[in-house]
Structures are given as C-alpha cells and as structure tokens.
C-alpha cells in the first residue's frame, strides 16, 4: 500500500450509497463522460459489488467525498473509471494515492496491466495520465455498443 496520509482526508471503500454525492463530483469534473448507460445507480452499484476492494472514495474531515476511483477487472486486465478529484483538493496527491491503492489491489490479484479511457478533448486528463507514466495505445481504436 502507498504510504500517504493527510489528517484531513480519509480513504475508504466506496459504497452504492455514495452514488449521488460521487455523481455530483463527476458532473463538476471537466472531461468526465457520463452519458453511458453504465453510469446509472444500478450500473455503478453493480461495478462496486463485483469490485469492492478497488472502488474507493476519499473524504474530507466532514465526510464529504472529495475524490473517487472505480477499479474493475475482467480477470486478466484492470481498468480505471471515474478517477476524479474535487478541484480544491487537487495537487495534494489524493488522485495518485487512489490510483496506487487500486493498482496494489490489482497486483495482489495477479493483474499485470491496467487501462483507462480518456476523452480526446480532455487535455488536462491526458496530461495527468502522462505525468503518471501512462502511455497511449496508437495501435487500437476503441468501439462500444449499447445493448
């Protein structure tokens, strides 16, 4: 586990009951894409139920959610979703800590590769991930299909 502490921030497992507060954070986070059918309460609750150790929330001293990360795996590769840090809390290492903790969970479960989707027009998000040492995949084009 990452050795990071801030007496004003607590990191814990995310629960379905956090949905409304987390969704409000995601809505005010530039570059967050929420149009998918998977972003309903039911979709997020399902993801959390299948990945309870890798879906995390950071809260301030009042218990308000200031950051989130949803980590999920298909059994061979991990994925990060909804990595968001409230604007006033950026620059304190909270996002990096959340990511590292999820990667620790993935490693403990034998996952050796992690991916994230970043919107083309989310330049700040792209810079964040590059700063974290992540690389783009020029060899793939992502497709999806709503059922």
TrEMBL record:
One of its GO terms (molecular function) is acyltransferase activity, transferring groups other than amino-acyl groups. InterPro entries: Acyl_CoA_acyltransferase, Bact_Acetyltransf, GNAT_dom. Residues 9-147 form the N-acetyltransferase domain. The keyword Acyltransferase applies. Pfam families: Acetyltransf_1. The keyword Transferase applies. It comes from the Bacteria. Keywords: Acyltransferase, Transferase. This is GNAT family N-acetyltransferase. It comes from Bifidobacterium aerophilum.
